[in-house]
Amino acid sequence: MKWSKELRANPVPVVVGGAMAVLAVVALVWWISDTPLGIDSAVYRAGGFAVLRGESLYSPLRALPDWALDLPFTYPPFAGLLFTSLTALPTQLCWGLLALAAAPSLYFALRPFAARADLPVLLVGAFALQPVWQTIGLGQVNLVLMAAVVADMFLLRDSRFRGIAIGIVAAIKLIPLIFIVHLLVVRRFADAARALAVFIGVTAFAMAVLPGDSSRYWTSAILNAHFTATKGWVGNQSWQAFVARTMPDGTAATVVIVAFSALFATLAMWLVHRLHRAGDDRAALLVTAGCSLLLSPISWTHHWSRQAVPCCSARSPGRTTGSGWCRRSDFSPPGEVVGERWRSPSCSRAGRSPSYRAGEVPSVTGPSSRRSSATRT
Questions:
Q1: Could you read off the pLDDT of 269-312 as tens digits, one per residue?
Q2: Rounded to an integer, what distance in angstroms lies between the CA atom of residue 136 and that of residue 20?
Q3: What confidence score (pLDDT) does residue 9 get?
């Protein structure tokens, strides 16, 4: 049958659909049996109830289930507004909603980093990564936010809506603000301006709707006691946490944190600039994501899903094969197909006519490696 042939040729829908079906069954069974499930999604839901009931987001959450730890709401007020949508569901089904989003989120996050033929295996492998299964188990929103950033960077490259998703993600969790800096470094100035405008706009909207919570968040709750108490815990894999575990508190520790954070940020943005100039925007994005995890005061192990998932790809569309050719992916630059070969528009405008095999793109490794490759052949 035609559909079975299509599935054999592209088993990604089977992997994604299968994972969603399994997670949906887990959510239903846990809900019916009233078994605790999803501590972080329970906090999101309780934050949504706090907004609807006029309670403070940054006081003890009254809507937390009895089995949940007394965790605080640590997100900006705009996130609390979004989480009001979760109040329509029981706690376990809130977890199920976020878990159902995990598989398609992984797919969209991996697409720019992997050849199409590798995607099914990589999707299955991604679920075995500790940051991924911990994100799903906790009911975290990390995978959805990661997919939104990757989609904004690559899927929407030719859209007038570029930058909007990054602005919204940054208003939910502040650390993704670093991707606005990334846009500036790679000279996508209009996208950076759009992302910043969206971030400011939705944050201002939250201030208008929740003035008390907004004032408390931006003046005190942003540096809450929960973060201070857990900063040195081994589950926190940020630079600040490393210093907290290896040095006593004091001026020396503060100097080490600030100095090396500035060094990390400078080196990371320099490397992003170099990679962008070389045409490797995928690697540039991974550098920025890694930098965000190091600089953030709190980088729980499940936060590392934004770095681990793209890195798990066995090869990227920008890598050359043994013959010196690259696979062309859906994210390759547009070009002109001439016969069975593909011509870069930038070369055509420059009056040159190098062409490439259909379905492939040239290496981004630069003129020097092309010369050395020619010498070897």
A1: 999 999 999 999 999 999 999 999 999 888 888 887 766 666 65
A2: 12
A3: 59
